[in-house]
Design brief:
- By secondary structure, this protein is α/β, with parallel strands linked by helices.
- It has three domains: about 1-185, Rossmann fold, CATH 3.40.50; about 200-345 and about 435-515, 3-Layer(aba) Sandwich (Rossmann fold), CATH 3.40.50.1820; about 350-425, Orthogonal Bundle (Arc Repressor Mutant, subunit A).
- About 30% of the residues lie in helices and about 20% in strands.
- The protein is built from 15 helices and 19 strands.
- It is elongated.
- The model is unreliable at about 1-15 (pLDDT under 50).
Length: about 525
């Protein structure tokens, strides 16, 4: 695959060992003709892989948006190596960085004039730095782009460049990631790669375990420092689109601070867990993920096997309820800001697409993509979240909230599909034919549902509560027997992803597990 996408590596020279740089020491600078252009996509993907800052080169006078008119202006400039005037890039200080990635479209065999201008203006500032070119093209490969680029930087450490086919760029995220990993290794001072601070009150370790489907799940284990004896234990996962270094890790670490042994795991096909294709979901396999986590916990000598709980966030809240309905070893369950992924997939938000025709259209589209994936030997992914700079006044507020978490330093993680590629286009097929909450009413063990008052998704928890108790509620906390719905005043969906808003009821959740386990 790489040979077909990545071409023109300075005469096919092998890439040397990656250059090691400190965290935050890489930057990506790019020019893209159109707002949704291929070079822009490549630049964003590379920046996310490196957790690097991203800056856009803009012409002082933009090129025409129509191709013939753009050609009339740009082609003579490329042929004459004209330096087209560009706008100053606010906030870019090259002194801060050890490695600089520069992106350009291939225009008539060379770099776009605004890129030539920027490199020429910054030749001195790039002296001694590792500089790497990436370009997108319509099928022409590298041509003179790499050579022309290198000639402008005689005193920089110019790394082997890469050319990516524009028509396939959005299905080639792994090739882009490999391109980065072969050139740059970002050093971590302490190995801590979470989006939340490390607690000094707990011990942390990496663990793995295997599901009945033969998949290996990766997890972070958190244990109270100095704890002895057999502890109550909790398995945590979610949100849907996140990895263990994000919300689930925060919940797990916080519960460990309060006396529990916890694990936060990456579901199958995501994060550091195994499974291909990447970023697909399955109600059966992902319910088994929770059960496999329970398998692991009950096998530990420091865990009381009669005191096992599970906690799911967002889409994994619904899966946690499904796991509780089937696994009698689970003695208590918490679902936070839950989604019923089967319902929202099959019916749309607020059941707005609950028609056979709408489901048929989804089936046809996803099955067509399966066929295309198989024939092409690749998987098409769809990043459903826009980037922060693409938000408009018309963007729904809950989407803006997701972007605020997944697409900014607040919650971005390079292995998170929500932060990067999104899920496989065909990922939701099995969710269309499954009802995750079908047997929720048969759960006899305690369940706590936590949801924000202002969350667009609140109806999922309200329905789950009604399914388990027979009592309909709307917008208020309620307890019936050992089932409780806790509404967090004023909170929106993503407020319960992290502690930025300071509204997660950590103490109440810990108290629930103490009372129930």
């Amino acid at each position: 695959m790489m040979a077909g996408i990545l071409t023109g590596l300075f005469g096919n020279k092998a890439v040397a060992d990656p250059i090691a740089i400190g965290k935050g020491k890489a930057v990506v600078v790019y020019y893209s003709w159109s707002p949704d252009g291929n070079t822009r996509f490549a630049a964003q993907t590379i920046a996310k892989r490196l957790d690097a800052e991203l800056f856009e080169i803009k012409a002082e006078k933009p090129y025409p948006t129509e191709y013939p008119a753009c050609t009339k202006e740009a082609k003579p400039e490329c042929q004459a190596k004209t330096l087209r005037a560009i706008q100053p890039i606010a906030g870019l200080d090259l002194k801060k960085y050890a490695a600089v990635f520069v992106g350009t479209p291939n225009w008539w065999g060379t770099m776009a004039p605004p890129v030539r201008t920027w490199v020429t203006q910054n030749t001195a500032a790039l002296k001694g730095k590792a500089v790497c070119l990436f370009q997108t093209n319509g099928g022409g490969g590298m041509q003179r782009v790499g050579k022309d680029f290198g000639e402008l930087l005689p005193e920089s450490k110019v790394l082997p460049p890469a050319a990516f086919s524009g028509s396939r760029i959005k299905s080639s995220v792994k090739d882009l990631e490999k391109f980065i990993d072969e050139r740059i290794a970002v050093k971590s001072d302490d190995g801590w790669d979470k989006v939340f601070p490390k607690s000094e009150k707990v011990e942390h370790a990496k663990v793995t375990f295997t599901t009945r489907f033969g998949l290996t799940l990766a997890a972070d284990l958190y244990k109270p420092k100095g704890a002895t004896g057999r502890l109550a234990a909790i398995a945590v996962s979610g949100p849907f689109g996140a990895v263990k270094e994000q919300s689930s890790g925060l919940y797990a670490q916080t519960l460990a601070e309060r006396g529990f042994l916890t694990i936060a795991f990456d579901p199958s096909f995501t994060g550091e867990s195994s499974g291909t294709p990447r970023y697909v979901a399955s109600p059966d396999i992902n319910t088994e993920d929770f059960q496999a986590a329970v398998d692991y916990l009950v096998s530990r000598d420091d865990v009381d096997s009669e005191r096992i709980g599970i906690l799911g966030v967002c889409g994994w809240g619904g899966l946690a309820i499904n796991a509780a309905a089937i696994d009698t070893r689970v003695k208590a369950t918490v679902a936070v800001t839950m989604y019923d992924m089967s319902r929202v997939t099959a019916k749309g938000y607020n059941d707005s697409a609950d028609t056979p025709a709408a489901r048929k259209a989804m089936r046809e589209a996803m099955n067509a993509q399966r066929t295309a994936d198989f024939k092409g030997g690749t998987v098409m992914y769809a990043a459903v979240l826009p980037n922060p700079e693409d938000l408009t006044d018309d963007t729904p507020q809950f989407v803006k909230d997701y972007v605020s978490f997944y697409k900014t330093p607040r919650g971005f993680h390079k292995r998170s599909p929500g932060s990067t590629t999104g899920w496989a286009v065909s990922a939701g097929l099995s969710l269309l034919n499954t009802k995750l909450l079908a047997y929720a009413g048969e759960i006899e063990t305690p369940v706590l549902l936590v949801h924000g008052e202002k969350a667009h998704s609140r109806y999922f928890s309200e329905y789950a509560f009604e399914k388990m108790t027979g009592v309909a509620v709307k917008g208020e906390s309620k307890k019936v027997g050992n089932k409780e719905l806790l509404i967090v005043p004023g909170a929106v969906h993503c407020d319960l992803y992290d502690d930025v808003a300071g509204v997660i009821p950590h103490d109440r959740i810990a108290a629930f597990f103490r009372e129930s386990l």
